[in-house]
Write a structure and sequence with these properties.
The complex is a heterodimer of chains A (about 425) and B (about 300). Chain A is built from two helices and 20 strands. By secondary structure, chain A is mainly beta. Chain A has a single domain (about 45-80, about 90-415), classed as Beta Barrel (Porin). Chain A is globular. Mean pLDDT of chain A is about 85; it is low at about 1-30 and about 65-75. Chain B is an alpha/beta fold and about 300 residues long. Chain B is built from nine helices and eight strands. In chain B, the strands form two sheets. Chain B has a four-stranded parallel sheet, sandwiched between helices. In chain B, helix 8 links the parallel strand 7 (about 245-250) and strand 8. In chain B, helix 5 packs antiparallel against helix 6 (about 165-190). The longest helix of chain B has 24 residues, at about 165-190. The chains are: A mainly beta (about 425), B alpha/beta (about 300). At the A-B interface, strand 8, strand 9, strand 10, strand 11 and strand 12 of A face helix 3 and helix 4 of B.
Chain lengths: ~425, ~300
């Protein structure tokens, strides 16, 4: 515990930075290139993190999620926060608007990786409430999935989104068709045909022997509904679901490798309520919301020892609920409770049976100061209570110590940014 | 096959006949962003339009959050009447995108931005200072009755393009609005004695100088949309000390800094409603009376 820079020392540092360098925030003016309107923005994000007890772990039953190096799945970079300074999630966003369609490009980067996160076209001129989106985009299932990190109310992606859909959420190549109904209340339906190259229910690990099924492998659908509750209240409820044609998981055991091959489906529900007090800079406003997802995977063993394996139905789920309140102009505070694996039946390797793992929990509390409309500093305290994996053939779970974490996030957006959705 | 098609055509004809009779004067669905724009829509459109207003009178249209119900209104609209000049930039584009109503695309007759037919007063803030600068000008044109008249006429032309058979009615309604408004202005101006010196929280009150004997001599904000620092307030107080004036701000703006300036200078402070309580001409007339009542005391 001999940190040179303790969090308490960093907060005044950040404050001094803002006092010294007032950031010019231009109104959201677009660049005009002939008939094309171009919005360009740069989002910079940095996180100072400190884990006070326990260590970074993976919720039991979700250890096969990538980033867990015990299982040999190598992803380019880890999203786990290390003690000290972290690069966070920064973005360059471009949106070109024409009469017929918009083109959107989002490049995500940290200090090591640069990645095209979104690149898609979306129509503007189809009749009767129809829209088609094509390219690589964040799926519109649920609430948080399609939101970029600077729109989140907490530093981290919700566990349920991370562990069921991947470290970037459900982010895929494909086509989306959506239809906004001509009803008095807001209602929207959508379907997505996606390639299925993700890390969640469409995963396909390196080292599997069975052939990759041809794409598209993932089909999703969503419905959103929002009644008119007047000027102060706004509500949106949604349901979503999807199926994946193939889900392949590899478990490397040193000299030999197991893998299971199957298909998967999910269903979920989401709710977001906003209260607008009508005071300046968000004072008195509330945001209360939550999401729940359930996933089933019908899996059997792939490879040569298939005959000795049965088929199993894995069942997992997760949920979060959060509330954020604007307690002063430009200041908000929020709490979030998360559960992962309330249902947690997964195949374990070697034991040829379905195992039942315990549930994991995470609790977060944050205070955010929005120095400007587009700049915020967030302090967050998080308690992780992750269940430990049960050992092979044992009923006793290997205990994981609970963790306390402190995070300080600094996020600034420059340039013209598309308007925010509900 | 032909008989079947004929039967289908007849069936459709019967189904459509009553609605065709009703459709003799189909009402256009107009979505107005602010109550002031609702005034224009309802006054000019009369009984040829159904008007839906998205922003409540006591809200700042600039910092509003998009609501799902806005999308539903825009989805069914024939025309959207926005202020423009980036006032609604934080939420209207997103709501329009989700509504996926091609009638309301920019450049279509169904998209009308009031700021377009006007030369707006330029922003009074120095862009080099930063803050929330409106590059296209000061969008708070509803604080200027003469500009509201210009918008009413331009909107009448636009409605006429969508419903040509009612063009004379729209033009007559706009002219009646102009007459009613213009006839009120001399009496309102006459209620001021000496020209009034105003310090405003934000720059929207700049429009008062166009039609009232007032002079804007300072702003509580140093940078638009950014809370002022103590140094700026001290400077403002020092500049105005010993002089006579009035402090104004909108009823949705934070009062503390303006209150401090008012207390130091001993000036009256007025937190004014900037939007009419309901979207009709009488409410707008009542609003400008309210402004003059407050300022010309």
């Amino acid at each position: 515990m001999h940190n040179i820079l303790r969090p308490a020392a960093l907060a005044p540092l950040a404050l001094a930075l803002f006092a010294a360098a007032p950031l010019p925030v231009q109104a959201q003016s677009s660049l005009k290139l002939g008939e094309v309107e171009l919005d360009a923005s740069l989002t910079l994000d940095g996180i100072f993190a400190r884990r006070y007890s326990g260590k970074e772990g993976t919720p039991a039953g979700f250890g096969h999620a990538h980033g867990d190096e015990d299982h040999g799945h190598h992803h380019g970079h880890s999203h786990a926060l290390e003690n000290g300074f972290n690069a966070g999630h920064s973005e360059i966003g471009l949106r070109a608007r024409t009469d017929l369609f918009d083109g959107v490009l989002t490049i995500g980067f940290d200090d090591e990786d640069v990645k095209v996160e979104e690149a898609y076209l979306v129509t503007r001129a189809l009749p009767a409430g129809l829209r088609v989106k094509a390219g690589k985009f964040l799926s519109d299932i649920g609430y948080v999935n399609s939101r970029h990190p600077h729109d989140w109310s907490f530093v981290e992606r919700p566990l349920v989104n991370q562990y069921l859909f991947g470290d970037h959420g459900l982010l895929e190549r494909g086509v989306q068709l959506s239809y906004t109904l001509p009803t008095r209340s807001f209602a929207m339906l959508g379907v997505e045909v996606l390639q299925g190259n993700g890390e969640g229910l469409d995963r396909y690990d390196d080292g599997a022997l069975s052939a990759r099924k041809s794409g598209p492998r993932l089909l999703t659908a969503f419905a959103k509904f929002g009644p008119d509750l007047g000027d102060r209240h706004a509500l949106q409820a949604g349901v979503s679901g999807g199926t994946s044609r193939q889900n392949v998981r590899v478990d490397a055991h040193g000299d030999h490798t197991h893998y299971i091959d199957g298909d998967a489906w999910f269903a979920g529900a989401d709710l977001m309520y906003r209260y607008d007090a009508g005071r300046s800079h968000g004072e008195g406003n509330w945001r209360i919301g939550g999401e729940y997802y359930y996933v089933e995977r019908d899996v059997g063993a792939g490879g040569g020892n298939r005959a000795r394996w049965l088929n199993y139905t894995e069942k997992q789920d997760g949920a979060y609920i959060e509330a954020v309140y604007g307690f002063a102009p430009r200041w908000e505070a929020g709490v979030r409770a998360e559960a992962l694996g309330l249902n947690n039946k997964v195949v374990k390797f070697h034991p040829r049976a379905l195992g039942e793992e315990d549930s994991s929990y995470r609790y977060s509390a944050q205070v955010t100061w929005r120095a400007r409309e587009t700049v915020f500093v967030r302090a967050q305290l998080t308690r992780e209570d992750f269940a430990g994996q049960r050992a092979h053939g044992s009923e006793a779970a290997v205990a994981q110590d609970g963790s306390w974490m402190f995070m300080l996030q600094l996020n600034a957006l420059f340039g013209s940014h598309p308007a925010h959705r509900f | 096959m032909k008989a079947f098609l004929a039967a289908v055509a007849v069936a459709f004809g019967i189904a459509l006949a009553p609605s065709a009779a009703l459709a003799e004067a189909p009402r256009l669905i107009v979505v107005a962003t602010t109550p002031s724009m609702g005034v224009i829509a309802r006054t000019v459109g009369g009984d040829r339009v159904d008007v839906q207003v998205l922003v409540a009178p006591d809200r700042d249209a600039h910092t509003l959050n998009a609501r799902p119900s806005m999308i539903a209104h825009l989805r069914r609209a024939d025309l959207v009447l926005a202020v423009g000049a980036q006032l609604e930039e934080g939420w209207l584009p997103a709501a329009l995108d989700a509504a996926a109503n091609p009638r309301l695309r920019k450049g279509q007759p169904g998209y009308f931005a009031a700021a377009e037919p006007l030369h707006l007063r330029p922003t009074r803030f120095d862009p080099a200072l930063g803050g929330h600068v409106h590059g296209e000008g000061n969008p708070h044109l509803n604080l200027s009755p003469p500009r509201m008249i210009t918008v009413a006429h331009a909107f009448a032309d636009r409605l006429a393009a969508l419903a040509p058979e009612s063009a004379p009615a729209f033009e007559a309604a706009a002219a009646a609005f102009e007459d009613a408004l213009r006839s009120r202005l001399p009496a309102l101006r006459a209620r001021f004695g000496a020209p009034l010196r105003l310090v405003a929280h934000h720059e929207e009150f700049d429009y008062f100088a166009e039609w009232l004997p007032v002079e804007l001599v300072g702003f509580v904000e140093e940078k638009p949309g950014v809370p002022p620092g103590p140094a700026h307030l001290a400077r403002l107080i020092e500049q105005q000390r010993g002089q006579v004036g009035t402090i104004v701000l909108a009823n949705y703006q934070p009062q503390a800094p303006a209150r401090r300036v008012a207390d130091e200078l001993g000036w009256p402070l007025h937190a004014l409603a900037l939007e009419p309580a309901t979207a009709d001409a009488e409410s707008y007339f009542a609003l400008i009376e309210h402004w003059v009542d407050s300022l010309a005391q």
